[in-house]
Write a sequence for this structure.
C-alpha cells in the first residue's frame, strides 16, 4: 500500500481511468472516488475541483449549447422511441396500425405467464454471464501477455483487434460454418475427438457456440481497455515484486489485477450491456434462436416477435422489460460491486 | 477539367433520361425475390415496361419476405406505401384484414380489364380469394415436391422413390445401410410447410377446426390429434438413425442434396432454377409421398407469394397497377415465368399452352407441382390454411418440433404444447379482428 502511494506519476494517470469508468454512470463514480480517497487518507480534491471549474465560467449558455447535440440525439433516438414503446406495450394492434385496442397490462401478463419467455430469461442470464467471464478472462490473459511479447508486438495487437472490424452477422456466419456438424472443419475435429457436437440439435452445444462467437467478437474491446489499464501499472512496482521473488502469475494476481479494478468493473457493465443488446446479429446468423429456443435471448425474442411475428404489443412490452432488466442490473452492479473497486489506484 | 466536363455531360445525360420518363406514370412494386428469381422478376418488369408507353413499373428488392412486410408496414404508417407489394402466403389474413389494401379483383374490374379469374388453377384461386373474389394477384405459387438422386436409387436397386412413406422409409434405410450415401434425406428449412402442413392436406388430415380457418376466425388447431404426431415421431427416428440430416445455420439444406451427400430432399418446385444450376448429380423429382392407408392422396397446397395492392394512391396510378396485373395474368407471361423459375403457372390456360408446346416433354419435373396441386377434389382439409398470425403459430410449432429433435419432449407432448400455444395466438388475432371476420366462406 505504502509503496503504491509513493509513485508520483500515477496520480496523473488516475483521472484518465476514472473518466472511462464514468462512461456508464457518471454520478456513481465521483462518489466512489471520494469514498476511496477518504479511506486511503489521501488528498486530491484540489486537482479534481480544478478540472471541473476550469472551463465553464459564465452562466448556463455555453454548457447548454454544447450539450444540445447530444440531448437532441437522445431525444430522437432514445426518449421518443422509449415513450412509443411504453405506449405500444399497453396496446393490442395490427401491424398496419389501422386497428388498435387498449388492453391495459395484458401484454405483460401474457408474457410473464408464458414458459417461452421464462426460458428466454434463463437463457439470457446464462449467456451474458458466460460471455462476460469468457470475454474478460481471455482479454486479461491476452493483455497481460502483451507485455511479455518482445517481437511482433504490434502484429500481435493487430490480430487481436481484428475481430472488432468484422460485422457481427459475418462473424456469426463464420462461426456457424466452422462448427457446422455436416461440413464445418472444427466440428469435424470435435467429432474426431469423439464429441458428438451438433448445435442444430443439442441446445447446450448451440448455447456454447453463440457464447463463443459473441465473446470472440468482444474480446478485443475488453483487451484495449485492459492494455491501457496495465500500462498504468508502474513498471518499477512490477520489477520490485519480481526482485522480491514473485513470479508472473503472482505479480498478475497480487498487483496488476487489483490495480485494474475500475477497468474490470467498467468492462463488466459494458459486457452485460453488449450481451443484452448487441449480440442480436450473431444469434440471428448462428442459430436463429434455436434449437427449441435454446439461444433465444431476450433481445432476439423482441426482434422475432416484433418484426417476424408482427406482434407489436408483446414486442414492445418485452423491450420495456428488457430495458428495465438492463437498468436494474447496471444499478445493482454499481450499488454492490462499485464499493469493492479501488479507484485510488 | 476533364472531370468537370464529364460531370456536366453526366448531368445532361441524366436529365435526358428523366425527361421523357416523366410522361409515364411510375408505380413501385416491392418484392422479396433474390438471386436467379430476382433476375427473372426484373426481366418480367422490363418486358412490361417495353410492351407499352404509358406506365413504368419500378421493381424494388426489399430483402426477404419478412423485410418486405416490415418495409411496407413502416411505409404505410408513414403514409408512403408502394402501390404494389409481394407478400408470402402466410401473411394472407394479416393483409386481408389490415384495412390497408385494395382487393385486386375490385381494382382490375373497376379499371375495365377482363381477367378471367375463374380460369386460375383451383388451389391457387381458392387460396388467394375471399368470398369468391381474388384479394391478391397470384404471382409466385409453388408447392413442395420430392427431389431425389437417381443414381443413389439405382445403385440401391430401386427405380424411383416409393409412393408411400412406409415404403420410402425402407428405401432410405437401405440406401443408408448399403453406404450409398451418407444420409437418406435432409430436413428442409421450411419443413413445417412441406412435412406438416402439406402432409396434412395430402393425407386428408384436419389441421384446424372450421375448415382450417376458412369458415371463421374461431378456428383452433387440432393437428395434435392427427397423423402429424406420428409424422414428427418418424422424422425424429430418421434423425436418430442418421437417415436424415439437418443442414443447420451457415449451410443450406439444398447444398446437402445437390452435392450428392443426401439422396433425397423435399423442397419447393421453385428451386428448379437453383438445382438446375448447382446440381452436380443426376437428379429427378416426383410427388410427395403419402401414408399407405390413405388412398387416393389429395392435392397439396400452395406456398409462395402474391401481389397486393396498397390503399391510398391516385386513380392514375391504379390504372398503371391494373395494367401491370393484367399483364401478369396473361397466359404468355405466365408460361414464360413458369419456365424461367419453376413456379407453377397460375391459370389453366397457361398450363395448357405449356403442354401444347411440349414443354413438359423436355422438363417433366416441372409438371409435377401442377399435377400434385390439381389432383382430386380439394376438401376442407386440403383447400389450404387460413389462420391469423400464421407466422407466429408456425414459429411456436417449429420450436416444439425442435424440442422433439433435441430429445427434450415426446412428439405427442410437443404437438399438444404447439397446439396450445398456437391457439392462444389465434385467439389474440380473433380478439383484434372481432367483428371484421368472415362468416362461412366457400369458394
Amino acid at each position: 500500500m505504502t509503496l503504491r502511494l509513493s509513485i508520483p506519476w500515477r496520480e496523473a494517470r488516475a483521472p484518465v481511468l476514472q473518466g472511462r469508468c464514468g462512461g456508464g454512470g457518471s454520478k456513481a463514480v465521483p462518489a466512489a472516488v471520494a469514498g476511496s480517497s477518504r479511506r486511503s487518507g489521501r488528498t486530491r480534491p484540489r486537482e479534481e475541483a480544478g478540472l471541473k471549474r476550469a472551463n465553464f465560467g459564465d452562466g448556463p449558455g455555453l454548457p447548454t449549447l454544447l450539450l444540445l447535440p447530444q440531448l437532441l440525439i437522445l431525444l430522437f433516438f432514445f426518449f421518443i422511441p422509449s415513450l412509443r414503446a411504453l405506449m405500444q406495450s399497453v396496446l393490442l394492434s395490427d401491424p398496419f396500425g389501422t386497428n388498435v385496442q387498449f388492453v391495459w397490462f395484458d401484454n405483460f401478463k401474457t408474457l410473464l405467464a408464458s414458459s417461452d419467455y421464462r426460458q428466454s430469461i434463463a437463457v439470457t442470464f446464462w449467456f451474458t454471464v458466460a460471455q462476460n467471464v469468457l470475454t474478460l478472462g481471455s482479454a486479461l490473459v491476452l493483455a497481460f501477455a502483451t507485455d511479455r511479447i518482445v517481437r511482433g508486438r504490434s502484429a500481435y495487437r493487430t490480430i487481436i483487434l481484428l475481430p472488432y472490424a468484422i460485422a457481427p452477422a459475418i462473424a456469426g456466419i463464420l462461426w456457424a460454418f466452422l462448427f457446422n456438424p455436416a461440413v464445418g472443419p472444427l466440428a469435424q475435429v470435435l467429432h474426431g475427438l469423439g464429441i458428438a457436437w451438433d448445435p442444430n440439435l443439442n441446445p447446450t452445444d448451440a448455447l456454447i457456440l453463440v457464447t463463443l462467437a459473441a465473446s470472440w467478437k468482444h474480446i478485443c474491446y475488453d483487451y484495449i481497455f485492459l492494455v491501457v489499464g496495465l500500462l498504468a501499472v508502474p513498471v518499477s512496482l512490477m520489477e520490485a515484486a519480481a526482485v522480491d521473488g514473485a513470479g508472473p502469475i503472482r505479480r498478475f494476481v497480487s498487483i496488476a489485477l487489483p490495480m485494474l479494478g475500475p477497468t474490470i468493473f467498467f468492462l463488466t457493465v459494458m459486457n452485460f450491456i453488449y450481451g443484452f443488446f448487441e449480440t442480436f446479429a450473431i444469434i440471428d446468423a448462428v442459430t436463429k434462436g434455436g434449437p427449441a429456443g435454446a439461444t433465444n435471448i431476450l433481445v432476439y425474442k423482441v426482434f422475432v416477435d416484433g418484426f417476424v411475428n408482427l406482434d407489436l404489443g408483446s414486442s414492445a412490452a418485452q423491450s420495456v422489460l428488457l430495458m428495465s432488466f438492463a437498468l436494474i442490473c447496471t444499478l445493482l452492479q454499481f450499488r454492490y460491486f462499485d464499493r469493492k473497486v479501488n479507484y485510488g489506484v | 477539367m476533364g472531370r468537370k466536363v464529364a460531370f456536366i455531360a453526366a448531368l445532361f445525360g441524366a436529365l435526358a433520361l428523366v425527361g421523357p420518363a416523366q410522361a409515364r406514370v411510375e408505380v413501385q412494386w416491392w418484392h422479396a425475390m433474390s438471386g436467379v428469381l430476382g433476375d427473372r422478376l426484373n426481366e418480367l418488369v422490363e418486358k412490361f415496361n417495353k410492351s407499352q408507353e404509358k406506365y413504368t413499373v419500378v421493381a424494388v428488392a426489399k430483402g426477404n419476405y419478412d423485410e418486405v412486410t416490415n418495409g411496407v408496414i413502416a411505409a404505410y404508417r408513414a403514409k408512403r406505401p408502394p402501390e404494389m407489394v409481394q407478400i408470402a402466403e402466410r401473411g394472407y389474413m394479416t393483409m386481408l384484414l389490415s384495412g390497408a389494401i385494395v382487393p385486386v379483383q375490385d381494382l382490375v374490374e373497376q379499371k375495365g380489364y377482363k381477367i378471367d379469374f375463374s380460369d386460375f388453377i383451383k388451389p391457387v384461386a381458392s387460396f388467394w380469394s375471399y368470398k369468391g373474389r381474388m384479394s391478391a394477384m397470384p404471382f409466385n405459387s409453388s408447392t413442395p415436391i420430392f427431389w431425389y438422386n437417381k443414381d443413389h436409387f439405382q445403385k440401391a436397386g430401386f427405380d424411383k422413390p416409393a409412393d408411400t412413406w412406409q415404403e420410402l422409409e425402407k428405401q432410405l434405410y437401405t440406401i443408408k445401410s448399403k453406404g450409398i450415401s451418407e444420409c437418406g434425406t435432409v430436413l428442409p428449412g421450411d419443413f413445417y410447410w412441406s412435412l406438416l402442413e402439406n402432409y396434412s392436406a395430402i393425407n386428408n388430415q384436419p389441421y384446424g377446426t372450421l375448415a382450417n380457418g376458412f369458415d371463421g376466425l374461431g378456428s383452433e388447431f387440432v393437428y395434435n390429434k392427427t397423423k402429424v404426431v406420428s409424422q414428427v415421431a418418424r422424422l425424429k427416428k430418421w434423425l436418430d438413425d442418421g437417415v436424415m440430416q439437418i443442414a443447420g445455420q451457415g449451410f443450406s439444406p439444398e447444398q446437402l442434396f445437390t452435392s450428392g451427400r443426401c439422396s433425397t430432399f423435399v423442397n419447393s418446385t421453385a428451386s428448379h432454377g437453383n438445382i438446375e444450376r448447382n446440381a452436380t448429380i443426376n437428379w429427378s423429382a416426383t410427388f410427395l409421398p403419402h401414408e399407405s392407408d390413405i388412398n387416393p392422396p389429395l392435392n397439396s397446397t400452395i406456398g409462395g407469394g402474391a401481389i397486393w395492392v396498397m390503399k391510398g394512391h391516385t386513380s392514375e396510378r391504379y390504372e398503371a397497377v391494373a395494367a401491370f396485373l393484367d399483364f401478369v395474368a396473361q397466359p404468355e407471361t405466365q408460361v414464360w415465368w413458369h419456365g424461367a423459375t419453376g413456379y407453377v403457372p397460375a391459370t389453366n390456360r397457361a398450363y395448357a399452352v405449356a403442354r401444347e408446346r411440349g414443354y413438359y416433354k423436355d422438363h417433366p419435373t416441372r409438371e409435377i407441382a401442377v399435377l400434385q396441386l390439381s389432383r382430386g377434389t380439394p376438401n376442407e382439409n386440403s383447400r389450404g390454411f387460413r389462420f391469423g398470425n400464421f407466422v407466429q403459430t408456425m414459429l411456436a410449432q417449429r420450436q416444439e418440433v425442435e424440442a422433439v429433435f433435441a430429445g427434450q419432449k415426446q412428439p405427442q407432448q410437443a404437438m399438444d404444447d404447439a397446439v396450445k400455444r398456437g391457439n392462444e395466438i389465434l385467439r389474440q388475432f380473433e380478439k383484434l379482428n372481432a367483428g371484421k371476420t368472415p362468416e362461412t366462406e366457400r369458394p
About this structure: The interface with chain B takes residues 92-99, 101, 110, 116, 173, 175-177, 180-184, 198-203, 285-288, 290-294, 304-305, 307-311 of chain A (CB under 8 Å). The first strand of chain A starts at residue 91 and ends at 93.
